[in-house]
Amino acid sequence: MDWENVFASRSSRMKASEIRELLKLLDQPDIISFAGGIPDPALFPTEEFQQAFTNTLSGEKQTAALQYSVSEGYVPLRQWIAGQMEKLGIHCSIDNILITSGSQQALDYLGKLLLSPNDTALVTWPTYMGALGAFNAYEPVYDRLMANGNRSAAEYRDTAADNNSRVKFAYVSVDFANPTGETLDRPGRERLLDLAQDLDMPVIEDAAYQSLRYDGEAIPPILALDIERNGHIDKTRTLYCGSFSKTLAPGLRVGWVCAAQPVISKLVLMKQAADLHSSTINQIAIHEVASKGFDKQVAKISVAYSARRDCMLSALEVHMPEGVSWTKPEGGMFVWLTLPQGWDGADLLARSIETQRVAFVPGHAFYADGSNRNTMRLSFSQANEETINEGIRRLGMLLKSV
Ligand code: PMP
Questions:
Q1: 289 with 221, same domain?
Q2: Quick one: 102 and 198 in the same domain?
Q3: Residue 331: CB within 6 Å of ligand 1?
Q4: At 18, is the pLDDT very low, low, confident or very high (cuts 50, 70, 90)?
Q5: Which of 78, 151, 379, 398 is the right S-S partner for 146, CB 3.0 to 4.6 Å?
Q6: Averaged pLDDT for residues 242-260
Q7: Across residues 14-40, what is the average pLDDT?
């Protein structure tokens, strides 16, 4: 069978990332990895989940837990999420919330809902590589979103027109972004809403790391600011994507979209067609664990991750050569390094693995156009402080030898 001949044209954009393939090879025990942006399993609320699954399978919820359920998601979980949204200044009802299988599924659905081939998606340079992967299947072109407001609506419109295209949405990872660790400040969020209004487009607000703030003042979500402007969530243009992956456990695959009701109705139809609903038992277990101790769990992981972040930032001060700069995140899991012009993160990764046994993600993978090869992403979520110090010391040796 000549499979390439039968695959739909959209599948040509679905490519294994060379970086992911390379990183798969890295689970040898002597490698210090700052590559994977994933939670530390030692911090999972394992006992709480053991208890929740036992309760769910032995109590009155037993039949429901193993049965098909509604596409919108488990009602008590949607109620709990609506309560959390309220605390962030997002007044909404459960009709504004759809449970998804991780926020990754929400990104796929929003791409499917909004993008026709050759439509323009505005993304920051760099952006979350998984968002590019989700949107790519719907064959968009990308243009560079200047989240600081340095480009006018007319410029975006003209660039799209040059490509016979139309701007369809802006996507932003707002708090402690993947990959940079940076947070869009309140004026930046307001300017983005102004731009969205001028271009009459939705804003996809990726809030995957929203709860992981270790210091500094919390900034209202774009959706909260949008509600402030328009008076009611059903009149807003912001599509908020939340996740339990970074706070409770990614393996259960539970996330959500919070948005105007007409969008949720359409996404519900999409979910019915795609997978009917997210795992019932996982939603019940997440609800039980979250409603009993979400804040405590967030406090626990914040203590651990903020110590690791501090450790990584101090080690960078000590070991990095002149000409290397990095972000100082107030939360999340990532620090972003910019190296002198002409240096290449991918080449350095190969050398780093060979000579220093330290792994990271080369930055170009996060650019829609593959540019800015002189960057790299380091994650501090998985290594302990001793390992972080040693890994950054070795990375410093490598960079000093360039
Ligand atoms: N958005 C961002 C910015 C992420 O970093 C991730 C996970 N790496 C996701 C979305 C997807 O997470 P999940 O599907 O587990 O909710």
A1: yes
A2: yes
A3: no
A4: low
A5: 151
A6: 98
A7: 80
Asked whether the predicted pLDDT for residue 179 surpasses 90, the reply is: yes
Ligand 1 close to Cβ of residue 101 (< 6 A): no
Task: Return the residue matching tokens 């402690």.
Answer: 176
Element (H, E) at 206: strand 203-206
Q: Do 29 and 163 fall into the same domain?
A: no
Please return the burial class of 156, using the count of CB atoms within 10 Å of its CB with bins 0-12, 13-18 and 19+.
buried
Provide the pairing of β-strand 167-173 with 141-144.
unpaired
Q: How confident is the model at residue 25 (pLDDT cuts 50, 70, 90)?
A: low
Amino acid at 125: W
Residues 224 and 269 in one domain: yes
Q: What per-residue confidence (pLDDT) applies to 153?
A: 96
- Amino acid residing at 205: E
Q: Which of 256, 276, 293 is the last residue of a domain?
A: 293
Q: How far is the CA of 104 from the centre of ligand 1 (A)?
A: 6
ipTM > 0.90 for the complex: yes
Judge if 29 and 146 occupy the same domain: no
Exposed, middle or buried, 377 (CB in 10 Å: 0-12/13-18/19+)? buried
**Dihedrals phi, psi of 376, to nearest 5 degrees:** -155, 150
Q: Are residues 31 and 99 in the same domain?
A: no
Measured distance CA(96)–CA(194) in Å, rounded: 23
Q: Are residues 176 and 316 in the same domain?
A: no
CA 19, distance to chain mean position in Å, is 18
Residue 326 has pLDDT above 80, yes or no: yes
**Percent above pLDDT 90 for the chain:** 91
Range of the domain at 88: 46-293
**Residues 368 and 132 sit within 8 Å (Cβ to Cβ):** yes
Q: Which of 38, 178, 204 to mutate to test the pocket of ligand 1 (most atoms within 8 A of CB)?
A: 178
3-state secondary structure of 95: helix
Domain count, the chain: 2
Domain termination site, one of 293, 318, 337: 293
For residue 192, is pLDDT > 70? yes
Averaged pLDDT, 274-282: 97
Query: Does 288 share its domain with 301?
Result: no
Report the C-alpha gap between 320 and 316 in whole angstroms: 5
For residue 250, give the ligand 1 atom closest to its CA.
Answer: 15
Look up the pTM and report it.
Answer: 0.97
